[in-house]
Specification:
CATH class of one domain in chain A: Alpha Beta
Number of helices of chain C: 17
Largest sheet of chain C: 4 strands, parallel
Number of helices of chain A: 15
Shape of chain A: globular
Largest interface: A-C, 50 and 53 residues
Strand order of the largest sheet of chain A: 2-1-3-4
Radius of gyration of chain C: 21 Å
Number of strands of chain C: 8
Strand order of the largest sheet of chain C: 2-1-3-4
Number of domains of chain C: 2
Chains: A alpha/beta, B alpha/beta, C alpha/beta
Oligomer: heterotrimer
Largest sheet of chain A: 4 strands, parallel
Distance between the termini of chain A: 35 Å
CATH architecture of the largest domain in chain C: 3-Layer(aba) Sandwich
Structural class of chain A: alpha/beta
Number of strands of chain A: 8
Order of helices and strands of chain A: HHEHEHEHEHHHHEHEHHHEHEH
CATH architecture of one domain in chain A: 3-Layer(aba) Sandwich
Shape of chain C: globular
Helix content of chain C: 40-55%
CATH topology of one domain in chain A: Rossmann fold
CATH class of the largest domain in chain C: Alpha Beta
Amino acid sequence: MDKAMRVREICDSFRELCSVPYNESLQSYKNDGGLIIGVLYNQVPEEILTAAGILPVRIRAVGSQGTEASDARFTQVNCSLVKHFYDSAAKGRFDFIDGLVATNGCDHVRKLHENWTSVLKPAYSHLLCFPKRQGDDLQVTQLAKEIKKLKESIEAHFGVEITDEALREAIKLHNRTRELQCALYELRKGENPPITGAQMLAVMMAGTCMPREAYNAQLEELVALCQDVEGISDYKVRVVVYGGEIDSIDFFEAIESQGALIVADSLGGYGKRSADMQISLEGDLYTNLANAYLMERPAEPRLHGTRAARWEYLEKVAEEANADGFIQVFIPICDLWGYERVMFATEVEKKDLNCLVLDTEYIFTASGQTRTRVQAFVESITEGGR
Amino acid sequence: MYFIGCDLGSTTGKVVLLESLGDAVDSCRIVSWALEPSGFSPEETADLAINRACEQAGISRDQVAGFCCTGYGREHVSAIPYNVSEISCHGKSASFLLPSARTIIDVGGQDVKVIALGKTGKVVDFAMNDKCAAGTGKFFEAMARTLRCTVEELGEMSLQSVAPVSISSTCSVFAESEVISHINKGVDRCEIAGGIHESIARRLMAMVNRVGLTEDVVLTGGCAKNKGLRVALEKMIKVELTEIPCDPQINGALGAALYARDAYDGEK
Amino acid sequence: MAKAPERLYQYAEVFKGGMAMTAEPAEAVGGIPKIMHENFRLALKHVNRLIETVENDEPLVSEWYGNTCEIYAAMDLTHFCPVDLIIPTRPFFDSIDRMHEDDTPADSCALIRLAVWGARAGIIPVPTVVTGMLEPCDAQSLMHEAWETVPGWENIPTISLDPPYGYGDEDIQYFADQLKREIDFLEEHTGHKMDWDELRRICEETNKINSYWDDVNHCLMQKPCPFHSLQAAEWGWTQALHVNWPGDPEVTEFFKLMAETAADMVEKGIGAVENEQVRILWADLNGSWAEAELGPWLEETYGAVMVNSFAGRTPYSVIDTSTPESMLFGLARKGINEVPMIRQARGTVDTFLQDVKDMCRDYQIDCVFFPNHKGHKDQGGNIGYLRELCREMEMPLLTFSSDIFDPTFLPIDELKRIIATFFEAQGWKPLK
């Protein structure tokens, strides 16, 4: 088979996996007796779950049709992401999970976890309290303690033992995923990136909803294939997408339909930031996990004191990918990313950067408005879009 | 040589027929234009408006060297594949009509845009309203309906306002209920109309602040014909708006026609 | 001599005006104007202290709600919360309109927006150091970062405290350990030193204040309520947590005055409202507009009093002053487990529900108003629990969406209409 075709095939299969909460891969895993824990947020050190022999699956309300069930538990001041998540949970779309783990990463999600736990009563639920700031040894020690609490809680509920050896193996497995993902990001820096931003998003999300060994194997093949495929050349500008928990492939496609090829990102949920760290295997593994998740991974607004580092990272990513501009994306009613928009605007002005701000509800429907904005942005960079 | 620009907006399709008499952009002149209420299909609206503009100019469609579409329906006219966003078109046109223009405030049927232009007429920044009709033509229509008058009368009434009431909701639906509560209290309709215009001006001001205010400032779009809005906006931004030398509603279509001309030149 | 922002001098005039207005008929109406007078006087004292600090180019600490100001006072550091004077003086300035014109997120809390706008607009004095709090809302954390992007505020040394999610001793100790770091930070950046004996004296004053405040609340629990809608909560909250200089005996005297006035009125059976019919719990911080713009209408139209709010909830423990460690532990407990809003909004819903339940019982409440403040995203997620609790208590609940710091978000007339419908449904008729 033609390499380009095989690349497309792998990306399409990843996309297919991401198109429903309970995909075929997960169904088959469950049928073989596997346990699944739903994870809210990328702050949860999933290595602990892997070490327990449980598959962590990131919760996404893909295909959600409404928020009626949420309206009894949330109000107008809550974002569409939590409303769709809760609604899907209430309608049984996540009934395949054997438990739920979340962090207090934002005001909406901590309440989502609380409502989900007390009203919908999953068989197992745990909230990992994540510090609100990067800082000193106090925060790292605190997080290491919290990770140990998660470990103990999993052990107690599921009757398993998480040995250091198992954790070491789990960290190796996750490190390998991140390494491969970074390799793919590296290939997209070239003039003719092998895959689009929308395809990359599917690649990243697939890693959170299928068994990791199988994912790594496919990713390995994809990276090898992408080394020498022809690549994309029919674009007008190269952009970097900046934001948090964005998981809509359609949204990225709407952006790219206007000639703005996403060549890199600084996205937390399913983007480069989540892949840009390696966890040390030396010394105390819990401290290593805490250090990596809190201090080493490129930060986002939910971690206070990281503003300068966030922008430094973003601008470095853009420079390496030879990008022409930034598209900042966020879901309304999010104070974290809402203020990041306001703040980053000062940087845009100071450095005369090309930057477009786009908001989208969790379920992306505003295709027309998005396309108009992106088209105008492309035109403003290219003098008329030609 | 003739060029056509179609601005297929949510409520009205606008077409400008442009004649280019030489290489320089200032050799262009508007020959005719047409406005057509938007129908079910952008294709049909474009057809009707183009035919009317050609008829008025006494030329046939075949004589037109290039076409360009903009507006919400821009991607849905199969005969005219070339399209440019409304933002670029408004910038292009305003800069053509008034080279000193630096800020465009475009208030259309369902969109509000504030566009910042550089010295060369390049769009340097823009802001658009979110997914809400407050401050748009639709909002004016809804408010006029509530006050049982036409949009034109609403604007006229606002000019007579001495102490405009406060309309603080940014949501059209809530704003309507505020208006009703003022009506029920017996507040003078002119003061309510004044309040409506002031609230819209405030909303526009917030968008202007997002991209920065640089003179000259022009107001375009169908709502630019509303005198009440012009006055309220001038008061709010504390800057006199500069008139553009054509119907402000066809600004986007004119920009599209200019893009059609550029594209033709580029292909030559 | 440096000049403070013009706005500070204007605040001083506002408070002087307030003092002048409340100076005369103090004795005639049961002492409430006297409390108001003292409230203005202490606010003026706070502003003057700020002005003097800026003019003399002395270190100025920006603190945030829930930071324990006892520490600054013990280090002889002038401190202020950057929005504390913008909010209560709102009726005298066009701050809200100007804030709306700024590009801060319209769906975020006006208090945070005002803080960011205020720094940008230059009406807030530029502090020497910033001490922040990262709970109870996301916006608060970002607000501190937003300041770093304001010209003149770029390189201010900042320390932000990370409250834990839990409520136990281990959690309190985590916070107390950070308070220790905060002291080191302040010593390093201001040159002022911690005086532990002074901290002990101050904590003892705080204990006295809290005891008087508790007495005030016991009076509010009686029928009829001795104070007008949300008054006591507003006064107490302001003086204990905002414009205060902890340890200032005048502040302690202020709380004593409140307690004595309330006790006197209760003893005489005098209510602030002549014909008290309905007692309301406002289940959040006070709406900054609710006391003055909604309260009188409720009282005059329905004889309804907003007896208390979360701002006046005072379950303060006594701070053990025996050692530096015990004081820091006590202050940490106050900072994360006891002060309003942080107490209810940080962590799980349990404290929020317990407070509503206890307050409904203790204050003989007839109905609960839940303002669904647009800054309290967490409390939006409490709505289901609150409905269930109120149903269980058979307590009428009115919910509406508002911004408790921006009266234009939900116009007062609109809110009055909503309340009138709710009261009608309960069978509570206007007095006349």
